[in-house]
Specification:
Layout lengths: L1 H13 L3 E5 L26 H17 L3 E6 L3 H11 L3 E2 L12 H15 L9 E6 L1 H8 L8 E8 L2 E8 L5
Parallel strand pairs: 1-4, 2-3, 2-4
Antiparallel strand pairs: 1-5, 5-6
Helix pairs in contact: 2-3, 4-5
């Protein structure tokens, strides 16, 4: 396992990949209760203290391993934005990463999955960098049939169109 993790980290160092990171650890006693204003973090499930530290640790591990980061995209949920901010100090919030379980409309759910497939298949504008997406588990499971726990990282090689290849997954402690 350690050899495959080292090989995956080496591939990440080379850039040109899409790295999908499920937000860091959250307080499971909280629920998403009112999503009408995504800036109201008190109505959402948020990072817990270990999750905040986990996000910082992953950002430090990217630096320590020399993993180049270009664009950082985040869901509108506070837990995702906080994960990106704590790790990389920046992010671009995009609507097509909205948490799938919170969407009742089947057409919008399909649009979210299709949009994520396109993002996973798109090579970063600067191929020496990686695109990082801070998203949600069900979105990734629906779009790519890949499951990761909170804080988990799935690495994809973009192949263009709507094609991509899952190279492997890492837990935060693997970094």
């Amino acid at each position: 396992m350690a050899d495959s993790n080292a090989a995956l980290i080496e591939q990440m160092r080379d850039g040109g990949l899409v790295i999908y990171w499920r937000h860091a650890l959250t307080d499971r006693s909280q629920r998403d209760s009112n999503l009408s204003d995504m800036n109201r973090c008190e109505t959402q499930r948020n990072l817990n203290s270990p999750g905040r530290q986990q996000a910082r640790d992953v950002g430090e591990a990217f630096e320590r391993h020399g993993i180049p980061v270009g664009t950082v995209l985040s869901s509108a949920f506070c837990r995702n934005r906080d994960t990106a901010e704590l790790a990389f100090g920046r992010y671009e919030q995009v609507d097509d990463l909205f948490n799938l379980p919170a969407v009742g409309d089947p057409a919008r759910r399909e649009w979210l999955a299709t949009s994520l497939r396109e993002r996973l298949a798109t090579t970063p504008a600067d191929a020496s960098l990686n695109t990082v997406i801070v998203g949600h588990n069900l979105n990734l499971r629906t779009a790519a049939n890949v499951f990761i726990d909170e804080g988990g990282i799935a690495v994809f090689e973009p192949l263009g169109g709507s094609r991509f290849r899952h190279l492997g997954s890492l837990r935060p402690e693997d970094l």
